[in-house]
Structure formats: C-alpha cells, structure tokens
Amino acid sequence: MRIDKAKCIGCANCVPICPMGAIYIADDGLSEINEEACVECYACYRGMSTENLPQQPTRFLRGVLAFFKLRFQPDPDICPSGAITADELVWPRTLRRAFSDPQIPHESTGDGGRGTQ
Q: Strand 78-79 relative to strand 31-33: parallel, antiparallel, unpaired?
C-alpha cells in the first residue's frame, strides 16, 4: 500500500483503520505507511470511501480553520482525497497479501485468506 503525499491532506482518518498500526502521521503532518509493519491486508484500501476533494484548497481550508482553532474533520470512514493507493506487489509482499487479505482466494484451495476454512 502507498499513501500519495500529493493527495493526502493529513486528516488522519486512515490511522485507526489499519489493523497492524502501520499507518501513522509523519513529521510533515501527512499520513505515511510503515512498509515493514504493513501486511498488505488492504483493510485501509477497502475500508475507506473517498470523496476526491481537491487537495490544495482543502489543505488551505484546514490551515485557515486551524488558525482560528477550528477543525475540518471529514467522517471517520472517508479519505477525503483518495490518497491511499495499491502498489504493484512483488515477492515477498505478494506472499504477505496471500496470507493477510481474507478476500483474496488462495491459489490451491480457492478459499479466502490463508486458504483454510
């Protein structure tokens, strides 16, 4: 998984969505994914709906509201800018996804997740 820094507005709605705690707010105030902690379960990618708000005006609005001690906070299950994107996975990350994503059918059994019921 990857968070597009050009799209992220720093709302932190994606942080509690990750079951592994791999998403955090970096020093620049934007979300970031710890690649070592991410197990490619795609919970953040599937679990958040997107609004696709324009990034620059939204960041400006958040800055103005922060100046007046107000917050623009979208609903907790929405990434307002669609910043979470799926990367093309290579080995061993594909193996992580096969064992972590319950919606991906296992190649030998056809069952989701680890291939067991």
A: unpaired
Cβ atoms of 81 and 51 closer than 8 Å: yes
Q: Which two tokens stand for residue 92?
A: 């061993």
DSSP state of 31: E
pLDDT digits (tens, 9 = 90+) for 46-88: 888 888 788 888 888 888 888 888 876 777 788 888 899 988 8
- Torsion angle (degrees, nearest 10) of CA 16, 33, 6, 61: 30
Q: Assess if CATH 3.30.70 describes domain 2-100.
A: yes
Residue 27: CB partners within 8 Å, gap ≥ 6?
none
Domains in the chain: boundaries: 2-100
**Is-contact 31 101, C-beta < 8 A?**
no
